[in-house]
Amino acid sequence: MAETTVAWGEVLQAFQHIWGYSDFRPPQDAIVRALLERRDLLVVLPTGGGKSICFQLPALLQSGLTLVVSPLVALMENQVQDLHDKALPAATLHSQLLPPQRRKILQALEQQALRLLYLSPETLLSPPVWERLCQPSLCLNGLILDEAHCLVQWGETFRPAYRRLGAVRTALLACRPPGTTLPIAAFTATADPSAQSILKQVLQLQSPQVVRLTPHRANLNLRVRAVVSEGQRKGTLGRYLQQHAGQAGLVYVRTRRDSEALALQLADRYRVAPYHAGLSSRDRRQIEADWMADRLQFVVATSAFGMGISKSNTRWVVHYQAPCTITEYVQEVGRAGRDGNPAEALTLVSEPTGWLEPGDRQRAKFFEAQTQALQQKAQRLVSQIPPHGDVREISQRFDHGAISLSWLHSVGQLEWVSPFHYQLTPQGRSPSRLQVSASQQMHQFLHSRQCRWQGLLVAFGFRTEAQRLGSCGHCDNCQRDRPRRAN
Protein backbone atom coordinates (compact mmCIF):
# COMPACT_ATOMS: atom_id res chain seq x y z
CA MET A 1 0.00 0.00 0.00
CA ALA A 2 1.69 3.17 -1.25
CA GLU A 3 0.65 5.70 1.39
CA THR A 4 3.02 8.63 1.65
CA THR A 5 2.80 11.80 3.71
CA VAL A 6 4.98 14.53 2.25
CA ALA A 7 5.48 17.90 3.91
CA TRP A 8 4.71 20.83 1.58
CA GLY A 9 8.20 22.19 2.15
CA GLU A 10 9.59 18.95 0.73
CA VAL A 11 7.31 19.27 -2.27
CA LEU A 12 8.53 22.81 -3.05
CA GLN A 13 12.14 21.79 -2.46
CA ALA A 14 11.84 18.90 -4.94
CA PHE A 15 10.03 21.14 -7.44
CA GLN A 16 12.87 23.63 -7.35
CA HIS A 17 15.60 20.98 -7.38
CA ILE A 18 14.19 19.00 -10.35
CA TRP A 19 12.50 21.67 -12.47
CA GLY A 20 14.09 24.87 -11.19
CA TYR A 21 10.85 26.64 -10.21
CA SER A 22 10.47 28.20 -6.76
CA ASP A 23 6.67 27.89 -6.65
CA PHE A 24 3.65 26.64 -8.57
CA ARG A 25 1.29 28.53 -10.83
CA PRO A 26 -2.31 28.20 -9.68
CA PRO A 27 -3.95 25.70 -9.87
CA GLN A 28 -0.88 23.45 -10.05
CA ASP A 29 -0.51 23.47 -6.26
CA ALA A 30 -4.13 22.31 -5.75
CA ILE A 31 -3.59 19.44 -8.21
CA VAL A 32 -0.35 18.29 -6.54
CA ARG A 33 -1.99 18.40 -3.09
CA ALA A 34 -4.96 16.33 -4.29
CA LEU A 35 -2.69 13.68 -5.80
CA LEU A 36 -0.57 13.49 -2.65
CA GLU A 37 -3.82 13.08 -0.69
CA ARG A 38 -4.65 10.16 -3.02
CA ARG A 39 -7.89 11.66 -4.31
CA ASP A 40 -9.56 11.01 -7.65
CA LEU A 41 -9.13 14.03 -9.89
CA LEU A 42 -10.37 15.52 -13.16
CA VAL A 43 -8.09 18.27 -14.48
CA VAL A 44 -8.92 20.51 -17.44
CA LEU A 45 -6.03 22.90 -18.09
CA PRO A 46 -5.33 24.75 -21.36
CA THR A 47 -2.45 23.61 -23.56
CA GLY A 48 0.84 24.83 -22.15
CA GLY A 49 -0.58 24.90 -18.61
CA GLY A 50 2.06 22.59 -17.14
CA LYS A 51 -0.13 19.52 -16.64
CA SER A 52 2.60 16.87 -16.82
CA ILE A 53 4.60 18.36 -13.92
CA CYS A 54 1.45 18.14 -11.77
CA PHE A 55 1.40 14.34 -11.87
CA GLN A 56 5.12 13.68 -12.34
CA LEU A 57 6.17 15.42 -9.13
CA PRO A 58 3.78 13.53 -6.78
CA ALA A 59 4.78 10.26 -8.46
CA LEU A 60 8.46 10.93 -7.78
CA LEU A 61 7.80 11.91 -4.16
CA GLN A 62 5.96 8.67 -3.33
CA SER A 63 7.28 5.16 -2.92
CA GLY A 64 5.18 3.19 -5.41
CA LEU A 65 4.73 3.07 -9.17
CA THR A 66 2.45 5.52 -10.98
CA LEU A 67 0.99 4.32 -14.28
CA VAL A 68 0.52 6.99 -16.95
CA VAL A 69 -1.85 5.98 -19.73
CA SER A 70 -1.07 8.05 -22.82
CA PRO A 71 -2.37 7.85 -26.42
CA LEU A 72 0.73 8.29 -28.61
CA VAL A 73 4.22 6.78 -28.69
CA ALA A 74 5.81 10.13 -29.55
CA LEU A 75 4.08 11.81 -26.61
CA MET A 76 5.24 9.10 -24.20
CA GLU A 77 8.80 9.11 -25.48
CA ASN A 78 9.05 12.90 -25.30
CA GLN A 79 7.97 12.97 -21.65
CA VAL A 80 10.14 10.02 -20.64
CA GLN A 81 13.17 11.53 -22.39
CA ASP A 82 12.68 14.75 -20.41
CA LEU A 83 12.59 12.70 -17.20
CA HIS A 84 15.69 10.71 -18.21
CA ASP A 85 17.52 13.98 -18.87
CA LYS A 86 16.88 14.75 -15.21
CA ALA A 87 18.07 11.25 -14.18
CA LEU A 88 14.60 10.28 -12.93
CA PRO A 89 13.30 6.65 -12.77
CA ALA A 90 10.77 6.55 -15.62
CA ALA A 91 10.17 4.32 -18.64
CA THR A 92 7.70 3.70 -21.44
CA LEU A 93 6.39 0.44 -22.85
CA HIS A 94 5.02 0.28 -26.38
CA SER A 95 4.90 -2.05 -29.37
CA GLN A 96 7.76 -0.38 -31.22
CA LEU A 97 10.42 -1.24 -28.63
CA LEU A 98 13.01 -3.86 -29.53
CA PRO A 99 12.71 -7.12 -27.52
CA PRO A 100 15.84 -6.43 -25.38
CA GLN A 101 14.51 -2.97 -24.45
CA ARG A 102 11.14 -4.42 -23.58
CA ARG A 103 12.63 -7.15 -21.38
CA LYS A 104 14.76 -4.59 -19.55
CA ILE A 105 11.74 -2.40 -18.73
CA LEU A 106 9.59 -5.36 -17.66
CA GLN A 107 12.43 -6.42 -15.36
CA ALA A 108 12.62 -2.90 -13.89
CA LEU A 109 8.86 -3.07 -13.34
CA GLU A 110 9.17 -6.37 -11.46
CA GLN A 111 12.02 -5.03 -9.35
CA GLN A 112 10.02 -1.87 -8.50
CA ALA A 113 12.84 0.28 -9.83
CA LEU A 114 10.47 2.74 -11.58
CA ARG A 115 8.38 5.62 -10.30
CA LEU A 116 6.60 6.40 -13.60
CA LEU A 117 5.64 3.96 -16.35
CA TYR A 118 4.06 5.37 -19.50
CA LEU A 119 1.98 3.05 -21.66
CA SER A 120 -1.02 3.05 -23.97
CA PRO A 121 -4.39 1.55 -22.98
CA GLU A 122 -3.66 -1.39 -25.28
CA THR A 123 -0.25 -2.05 -23.70
CA LEU A 124 -1.67 -1.71 -20.18
CA LEU A 125 -4.15 -4.51 -20.98
CA SER A 126 -1.65 -6.74 -22.83
CA PRO A 127 -0.92 -10.08 -21.05
CA PRO A 128 2.79 -9.54 -20.22
CA VAL A 129 2.10 -6.17 -18.59
CA TRP A 130 -1.23 -6.97 -16.97
CA GLU A 131 0.10 -10.15 -15.33
CA ARG A 132 2.93 -8.19 -13.71
CA LEU A 133 0.64 -5.38 -12.57
CA CYS A 134 -1.57 -7.95 -10.84
CA GLN A 135 1.30 -9.20 -8.65
CA PRO A 136 0.25 -8.39 -5.04
CA SER A 137 3.79 -7.37 -4.11
CA LEU A 138 3.90 -4.60 -6.73
CA CYS A 139 3.26 -1.28 -5.00
CA LEU A 140 0.98 0.87 -7.17
CA ASN A 141 0.59 4.57 -6.47
CA GLY A 142 -2.10 5.62 -8.89
CA LEU A 143 -3.37 5.66 -12.45
CA ILE A 144 -3.03 8.83 -14.55
CA LEU A 145 -4.93 9.22 -17.82
CA ASP A 146 -3.07 11.84 -19.85
CA GLU A 147 -4.79 13.52 -22.83
CA ALA A 148 -8.02 12.11 -21.40
CA HIS A 149 -10.19 13.63 -24.14
CA CYS A 150 -8.91 10.78 -26.36
CA LEU A 151 -11.16 8.42 -24.38
CA VAL A 152 -14.17 10.46 -25.46
CA GLN A 153 -13.04 11.03 -29.06
CA TRP A 154 -11.59 7.62 -29.89
CA GLY A 155 -13.06 5.12 -27.39
CA GLU A 156 -16.05 4.24 -29.59
CA THR A 157 -14.12 4.04 -32.86
CA PHE A 158 -10.53 2.90 -33.28
CA ARG A 159 -9.22 2.80 -29.67
CA PRO A 160 -11.80 0.62 -27.87
CA ALA A 161 -9.40 -0.28 -25.04
CA TYR A 162 -10.08 3.19 -23.62
CA ARG A 163 -13.64 2.15 -22.75
CA ARG A 164 -12.34 -0.71 -20.57
CA LEU A 165 -10.19 1.47 -18.32
CA GLY A 166 -12.99 1.94 -15.80
CA ALA A 167 -12.69 -1.72 -14.78
CA VAL A 168 -8.92 -1.53 -14.19
CA ARG A 169 -8.97 -0.15 -10.63
CA THR A 170 -11.32 -2.82 -9.24
CA ALA A 171 -9.32 -5.62 -10.89
CA LEU A 172 -5.97 -4.37 -9.57
CA LEU A 173 -7.31 -3.78 -6.05
CA ALA A 174 -8.71 -7.32 -6.00
CA CYS A 175 -5.10 -8.58 -6.13
CA ARG A 176 -4.02 -6.47 -3.16
CA PRO A 177 -4.53 -6.36 0.61
CA PRO A 178 -7.80 -4.92 1.96
CA GLY A 179 -7.63 -1.16 2.50
CA THR A 180 -5.32 -0.54 -0.46
CA THR A 181 -6.27 2.50 -2.54
CA LEU A 182 -5.60 3.32 -6.18
CA PRO A 183 -6.57 6.90 -7.11
CA ILE A 184 -7.34 7.78 -10.72
CA ALA A 185 -6.63 11.21 -12.23
CA ALA A 186 -7.68 12.33 -15.71
CA PHE A 187 -5.79 15.22 -17.34
CA THR A 188 -6.79 17.05 -20.52
CA ALA A 189 -6.62 20.49 -22.12
CA THR A 190 -10.17 20.31 -23.44
CA ALA A 191 -13.31 18.73 -22.03
CA ASP A 192 -16.74 20.30 -22.35
CA PRO A 193 -19.41 19.40 -19.76
CA SER A 194 -20.53 16.38 -21.81
CA ALA A 195 -16.95 15.07 -22.08
CA GLN A 196 -16.38 15.61 -18.35
CA SER A 197 -19.49 13.55 -17.61
CA ILE A 198 -18.31 10.72 -19.88
CA LEU A 199 -14.86 10.69 -18.25
CA LYS A 200 -16.33 10.52 -14.74
CA GLN A 201 -18.70 7.73 -15.76
CA VAL A 202 -16.34 5.56 -17.82
CA LEU A 203 -13.40 5.84 -15.40
CA GLN A 204 -15.75 5.38 -12.43
CA LEU A 205 -14.17 8.34 -10.65
CA GLN A 206 -15.09 8.47 -6.95
CA SER A 207 -16.13 11.95 -5.76
CA PRO A 208 -13.39 13.49 -7.91
CA GLN A 209 -11.96 16.91 -7.25
CA VAL A 210 -12.49 18.88 -10.47
CA VAL A 211 -9.92 21.53 -11.41
CA ARG A 212 -10.68 23.64 -14.49
CA LEU A 213 -9.23 26.72 -16.11
CA THR A 214 -10.90 28.68 -18.88
CA PRO A 215 -9.40 28.02 -22.36
CA HIS A 216 -9.42 31.75 -23.17
CA ARG A 217 -6.08 33.04 -24.47
CA ALA A 218 -5.91 36.83 -24.81
CA ASN A 219 -2.90 36.64 -27.15
CA LEU A 220 -4.60 34.33 -29.66
CA ASN A 221 -6.59 35.94 -32.49
CA LEU A 222 -9.29 33.63 -33.94
CA ARG A 223 -10.43 34.06 -37.53
CA VAL A 224 -12.71 32.14 -39.91
CA ARG A 225 -12.71 32.73 -43.67
CA ALA A 226 -15.37 31.37 -46.02
CA VAL A 227 -14.27 30.14 -49.46
CA VAL A 228 -16.47 29.40 -52.47
CA SER A 229 -14.19 26.98 -54.35
CA GLU A 230 -11.25 24.69 -53.82
CA GLY A 231 -9.17 27.11 -55.88
CA GLN A 232 -10.02 29.98 -53.54
CA ARG A 233 -9.15 27.77 -50.56
CA LYS A 234 -5.69 27.12 -52.00
CA GLY A 235 -5.24 30.77 -52.99
CA THR A 236 -6.19 32.00 -49.52
CA LEU A 237 -3.69 29.64 -47.91
CA GLY A 238 -0.99 30.72 -50.39
CA ARG A 239 -1.45 34.40 -49.60
CA TYR A 240 -1.53 33.69 -45.86
CA LEU A 241 1.77 31.81 -46.03
CA GLN A 242 3.36 34.69 -47.95
CA GLN A 243 2.22 37.11 -45.24
CA HIS A 244 3.79 34.89 -42.55
CA ALA A 245 7.07 34.13 -44.29
CA GLY A 246 9.64 32.65 -41.94
CA GLN A 247 7.21 32.26 -39.02
CA ALA A 248 6.72 28.80 -37.51
CA GLY A 249 3.22 27.40 -37.89
CA LEU A 250 0.97 24.41 -38.52
CA VAL A 251 -1.52 23.57 -41.26
CA TYR A 252 -4.23 21.07 -40.28
CA VAL A 253 -6.17 18.90 -42.74
CA ARG A 254 -8.66 16.06 -42.22
CA THR A 255 -7.15 13.10 -44.09
CA ARG A 256 -3.80 11.47 -44.78
CA ARG A 257 -4.33 11.95 -48.53
CA ASP A 258 -4.81 15.72 -48.11
CA SER A 259 -1.73 15.89 -45.87
CA GLU A 260 0.45 14.30 -48.54
CA ALA A 261 -1.05 16.20 -51.49
CA LEU A 262 -0.98 19.67 -49.95
CA ALA A 263 2.56 19.28 -48.58
CA LEU A 264 3.73 18.18 -52.04
CA GLN A 265 2.15 21.24 -53.66
CA LEU A 266 3.86 23.59 -51.19
CA ALA A 267 7.26 21.87 -51.04
CA ASP A 268 8.80 23.87 -53.90
CA ARG A 269 8.28 27.16 -52.00
CA TYR A 270 8.46 26.21 -48.32
CA ARG A 271 10.29 23.96 -45.87
CA VAL A 272 7.33 21.67 -45.22
CA ALA A 273 6.50 18.00 -44.62
CA PRO A 274 3.29 15.95 -44.33
CA TYR A 275 2.46 14.30 -41.01
CA HIS A 276 -0.18 11.64 -40.27
CA ALA A 277 -0.64 8.37 -38.42
CA GLY A 278 0.23 6.34 -41.53
CA LEU A 279 3.89 7.37 -41.37
CA SER A 280 6.40 5.17 -39.57
CA SER A 281 7.24 6.07 -36.00
CA ARG A 282 10.78 6.96 -37.09
CA ASP A 283 9.53 9.34 -39.80
CA ARG A 284 7.08 11.01 -37.42
CA ARG A 285 9.76 11.60 -34.80
CA GLN A 286 12.12 13.03 -37.44
CA ILE A 287 9.47 15.46 -38.68
CA GLU A 288 8.71 16.56 -35.11
CA ALA A 289 12.43 17.14 -34.46
CA ASP A 290 12.86 19.06 -37.72
CA TRP A 291 9.90 21.32 -36.94
CA MET A 292 11.04 21.93 -33.36
CA ALA A 293 14.54 22.86 -34.64
CA ASP A 294 13.12 25.19 -37.36
CA ARG A 295 14.46 22.99 -40.16
CA LEU A 296 10.81 22.94 -41.26
CA GLN A 297 8.76 26.14 -41.21
CA PHE A 298 5.48 24.26 -40.88
CA VAL A 299 3.90 20.81 -41.09
CA VAL A 300 0.75 19.82 -43.01
CA ALA A 301 -0.79 17.50 -40.47
CA THR A 302 -3.83 15.53 -39.48
CA SER A 303 -5.00 15.57 -35.86
CA ALA A 304 -2.26 13.00 -35.14
CA PHE A 305 0.22 15.89 -34.73
CA GLY A 306 0.68 18.05 -31.70
CA MET A 307 -0.27 16.32 -28.47
CA GLY A 308 2.54 16.85 -25.99
CA ILE A 309 4.67 18.74 -28.51
CA SER A 310 5.26 22.30 -27.37
CA LYS A 311 6.96 24.84 -29.64
CA SER A 312 6.54 28.15 -27.85
CA ASN A 313 7.24 30.41 -30.86
CA THR A 314 4.51 28.94 -33.08
CA ARG A 315 2.92 32.09 -34.47
CA TRP A 316 0.00 30.67 -36.45
CA VAL A 317 -2.25 27.67 -37.00
CA VAL A 318 -4.32 27.27 -40.17
CA HIS A 319 -7.16 24.78 -40.42
CA TYR A 320 -7.20 24.22 -44.16
CA GLN A 321 -10.27 22.11 -43.43
CA ALA A 322 -12.31 22.58 -40.26
CA PRO A 323 -11.98 19.96 -37.53
CA CYS A 324 -14.94 17.76 -36.53
CA THR A 325 -15.42 19.12 -33.04
CA ILE A 326 -14.81 22.18 -30.91
CA THR A 327 -12.63 20.04 -28.64
CA GLU A 328 -10.27 19.30 -31.56
CA TYR A 329 -10.35 22.96 -32.60
CA VAL A 330 -9.33 24.27 -29.16
CA GLN A 331 -6.62 21.59 -28.85
CA GLU A 332 -5.10 22.54 -32.19
CA VAL A 333 -5.36 26.35 -32.14
CA GLY A 334 -3.89 26.23 -28.62
CA ARG A 335 -0.56 25.17 -30.10
CA ALA A 336 0.02 28.75 -31.28
CA GLY A 337 1.38 31.54 -29.11
CA ARG A 338 2.43 29.53 -26.07
CA ASP A 339 5.15 32.10 -25.40
CA GLY A 340 2.41 34.66 -24.65
CA ASN A 341 3.17 36.78 -27.72
CA PRO A 342 0.50 37.53 -30.35
CA ALA A 343 -0.52 34.56 -32.47
CA GLU A 344 -3.26 33.75 -34.99
CA ALA A 345 -5.58 30.87 -35.83
CA LEU A 346 -7.30 30.88 -39.23
CA THR A 347 -9.96 28.35 -40.28
CA LEU A 348 -11.06 28.00 -43.90
CA VAL A 349 -14.65 26.83 -44.40
CA SER A 350 -17.10 26.39 -47.25
CA GLU A 351 -19.60 29.24 -47.53
CA PRO A 352 -22.63 28.59 -45.25
CA THR A 353 -24.84 26.77 -47.76
CA GLY A 354 -22.07 24.44 -48.90
CA TRP A 355 -23.46 24.47 -52.44
CA LEU A 356 -20.65 26.42 -54.12
CA GLU A 357 -17.85 24.48 -52.40
CA PRO A 358 -19.30 21.23 -51.06
CA GLY A 359 -15.99 19.80 -49.78
CA ASP A 360 -16.68 20.39 -46.08
CA ARG A 361 -20.19 18.97 -46.33
CA GLN A 362 -18.95 15.87 -48.18
CA ARG A 363 -16.24 15.25 -45.58
CA ALA A 364 -18.76 15.61 -42.73
CA LYS A 365 -21.13 13.13 -44.44
CA PHE A 366 -18.26 10.68 -44.96
CA PHE A 367 -17.26 10.67 -41.28
CA GLU A 368 -20.91 10.51 -40.19
CA ALA A 369 -21.50 7.52 -42.50
CA GLN A 370 -18.48 5.74 -40.99
CA THR A 371 -19.88 6.27 -37.50
CA GLN A 372 -23.32 4.99 -38.50
CA ALA A 373 -21.78 1.88 -40.06
CA LEU A 374 -19.99 1.07 -36.81
CA GLN A 375 -23.21 1.56 -34.84
CA GLN A 376 -25.11 -0.80 -37.16
CA LYS A 377 -22.42 -3.46 -36.78
CA ALA A 378 -22.64 -3.16 -33.01
CA GLN A 379 -26.42 -3.60 -33.00
CA ARG A 380 -26.15 -6.69 -35.21
CA LEU A 381 -23.54 -8.11 -32.84
CA VAL A 382 -25.91 -8.01 -29.83
CA SER A 383 -27.95 -10.93 -31.17
CA GLN A 384 -24.85 -12.96 -32.06
CA ILE A 385 -22.86 -12.95 -28.82
CA PRO A 386 -23.49 -14.57 -25.40
CA PRO A 387 -24.75 -12.37 -22.54
CA HIS A 388 -21.41 -12.85 -20.76
CA GLY A 389 -18.11 -13.13 -22.59
CA ASP A 390 -14.46 -12.28 -23.19
CA VAL A 391 -13.50 -9.33 -25.40
CA ARG A 392 -10.53 -11.30 -26.76
CA GLU A 393 -12.76 -14.09 -28.04
CA ILE A 394 -15.26 -11.64 -29.56
CA SER A 395 -12.41 -9.78 -31.29
CA GLN A 396 -11.22 -13.00 -32.92
CA ARG A 397 -14.69 -14.13 -34.02
CA PHE A 398 -16.15 -10.87 -35.33
CA ASP A 399 -14.88 -8.05 -37.53
CA HIS A 400 -14.67 -4.87 -35.42
CA GLY A 401 -15.73 -6.95 -32.41
CA ALA A 402 -13.89 -4.91 -29.78
CA ILE A 403 -15.10 -1.62 -31.27
CA SER A 404 -18.69 -2.88 -31.31
CA LEU A 405 -18.46 -3.85 -27.64
CA SER A 406 -17.17 -0.37 -26.81
CA TRP A 407 -20.05 1.25 -28.66
CA LEU A 408 -22.54 -0.96 -26.80
CA HIS A 409 -20.90 0.17 -23.56
CA SER A 410 -21.35 3.82 -24.57
CA VAL A 411 -25.13 3.38 -25.01
CA GLY A 412 -25.64 1.41 -21.79
CA GLN A 413 -26.19 -2.02 -23.36
CA LEU A 414 -23.03 -3.52 -21.87
CA GLU A 415 -21.00 -3.38 -18.66
CA TRP A 416 -17.35 -4.29 -18.16
CA VAL A 417 -17.17 -6.64 -15.18
CA SER A 418 -13.38 -6.74 -15.61
CA PRO A 419 -11.01 -5.19 -18.16
CA PHE A 420 -11.50 -8.33 -20.28
CA HIS A 421 -15.02 -9.59 -19.53
CA TYR A 422 -18.33 -8.01 -20.46
CA GLN A 423 -21.96 -8.50 -19.47
CA LEU A 424 -24.85 -7.42 -21.67
CA THR A 425 -27.51 -5.36 -19.89
CA PRO A 426 -31.20 -5.33 -20.83
CA GLN A 427 -31.58 -1.60 -20.42
CA GLY A 428 -30.01 0.73 -22.92
CA ARG A 429 -30.26 4.18 -24.37
CA SER A 430 -31.05 5.19 -27.89
CA PRO A 431 -27.97 5.31 -30.15
CA SER A 432 -25.63 8.12 -29.20
CA ARG A 433 -25.87 11.29 -31.28
CA LEU A 434 -22.75 12.72 -29.66
CA GLN A 435 -20.69 12.88 -32.88
CA VAL A 436 -23.56 14.39 -34.89
CA SER A 437 -24.38 17.04 -32.29
CA ALA A 438 -20.67 17.80 -31.92
CA SER A 439 -20.34 18.42 -35.67
CA GLN A 440 -23.46 20.62 -35.59
CA GLN A 441 -21.97 22.58 -32.69
CA MET A 442 -18.77 23.06 -34.70
CA HIS A 443 -20.75 24.24 -37.76
CA GLN A 444 -22.65 26.77 -35.64
CA PHE A 445 -19.42 28.08 -34.12
CA LEU A 446 -17.77 28.53 -37.51
CA HIS A 447 -20.71 30.39 -39.05
CA SER A 448 -21.71 32.43 -35.98
CA ARG A 449 -21.45 36.22 -35.91
CA GLN A 450 -20.99 36.36 -32.12
CA CYS A 451 -17.64 36.74 -30.33
CA ARG A 452 -15.76 33.52 -31.01
CA TRP A 453 -14.09 33.38 -27.60
CA GLN A 454 -17.48 33.88 -25.94
CA GLY A 455 -18.84 30.98 -27.96
CA LEU A 456 -15.95 28.72 -26.92
CA LEU A 457 -16.27 29.64 -23.25
CA VAL A 458 -20.00 28.83 -23.27
CA ALA A 459 -19.35 25.53 -25.10
CA PHE A 460 -16.86 24.50 -22.40
CA GLY A 461 -19.11 25.40 -19.51
CA PHE A 462 -17.70 28.83 -18.62
CA ARG A 463 -20.87 30.87 -19.14
CA THR A 464 -20.14 33.35 -16.34
CA GLU A 465 -16.64 33.98 -17.69
CA ALA A 466 -18.10 34.46 -21.18
CA GLN A 467 -20.49 37.14 -19.90
CA ARG A 468 -17.67 38.82 -18.02
CA LEU A 469 -15.46 38.79 -21.14
CA GLY A 470 -17.95 40.65 -23.30
CA SER A 471 -16.45 41.50 -26.67
CA CYS A 472 -12.99 39.94 -26.71
CA GLY A 473 -11.48 42.28 -29.30
CA HIS A 474 -9.25 39.53 -30.71
CA CYS A 475 -11.49 37.53 -33.03
CA ASP A 476 -12.72 38.38 -36.51
CA ASN A 477 -16.34 38.91 -35.39
CA CYS A 478 -15.43 41.39 -32.65
CA GLN A 479 -13.00 43.21 -34.94
CA ARG A 480 -15.66 43.35 -37.70
CA ASP A 481 -18.23 44.83 -35.32
CA ARG A 482 -15.87 47.35 -33.73
CA PRO A 483 -17.03 50.92 -34.50
CA ARG A 484 -14.86 52.81 -36.91
CA ARG A 485 -12.97 55.70 -35.34
CA ALA A 486 -13.67 59.17 -36.68
CA ASN A 487 -10.78 60.77 -38.54
Describe the structure in your own words.
- This protein is α/β, with parallel strands linked by helices.
- It has helices spanning 8-19, 28-36, 51-61, 73-85, 99-110, 121-124, 127-133, 149-154, 168-173, 193-203, 230-243, 256-266, 281-292, 326-333, 359-382, 391-397, 401-410, 434-447, 452-459, 463-469, 476-481; strands at 41-44, 65-69, 90-93, 116-119, 140-145, 184-188, 209-212, 220-227, 249-252, 272-275, 298-301, 316-319, 343-350, 388-390, 414-416, 421-424.
- The chain has a 7-stranded parallel beta sheet, with helices on both faces. It has a 6-stranded parallel beta sheet with strand order 8-13-12-9-11-10, with helices on both faces. A 3-stranded antiparallel beta sheet has the order 14-16-15.
- α19 packs antiparallel against α20.
- The longest helix is centred in the C-terminal third of the chain and has 24 residues, at 359-382.
- The N and C termini lie far apart (73 Å).
- The mean pLDDT is 91.
Strand content: 15-25%
Broad structural category = alpha/beta
Trace the largest sheet across and list its strands. 3-4-2-5-6-1-7
**Gross geometry:** globular
The main pleated sheet reads as: 7 strands, parallel
Summary tags:
487 residues, alpha/beta, seven-stranded parallel sheet, six-stranded parallel sheet, 15% strand
What topology does this entry show?
Elements: H1 8-19, H2 28-36, E1 41-44, H3 51-61, E2 65-69, H4 73-85, E3 90-93, H5 99-110, E4 116-119, H6 121-124, H7 127-133, E5 140-145, H8 149-154, H9 168-173, E6 184-188, H10 193-203, E7 209-212, E8 220-227, H11 230-243, E9 249-252, H12 256-266, E10 272-275, H13 281-292, E11 298-301, E12 316-319, H14 326-333, E13 343-350, H15 359-382, E14 388-390, H16 391-397, H17 401-410, E15 414-416, E16 421-424, H18 434-447, H19 452-459, H20 463-469, H21 476-481
Parallel strand pairs: 1-6, 1-7, 2-4, 2-5, 3-4, 5-6, 8-13, 9-11, 9-12, 10-11, 12-13
Antiparallel strand pairs: 14-16, 15-16
